[in-house]
Design goal:
This protein has a single domain, classed as Orthogonal Bundle (Helix Hairpins). 86% of the residues lie in helices and 0% in strands. It has 85 residues and is mainly alpha-helical. The structure holds magnesium ion. Magnesium ion binds next to helix 2 and helix 3.
Length: 85
Amino acid sequence: MSIYAEAINFFGVAHQVGKALEEIAELKEAIETFGEGKDTKDHVCEEIADVKIMCLQLRIMFGNDIVDEWKLKKIERLKRLVSDE
Ligand SMILES: [Mg+2]
């Protein structure tokens, strides 16, 4: 079992969804304050890591396959947007 699945089993789905929202808010705040020159790049990176960890738990909670399908679609769309064609 991955550490992400272990965390969900240990803390529970509701708790980890709440934690995800908390970490997303922290990243938003860090990016904004960094943009104002009031926060460090290292702190933004820390918050990115927190959100990545929580996103990998959300992926398990909401459905690995569906998230992966959407990710493929979004990447394909991004490739089209940045291509010259
Ligand atoms: Mg955090």
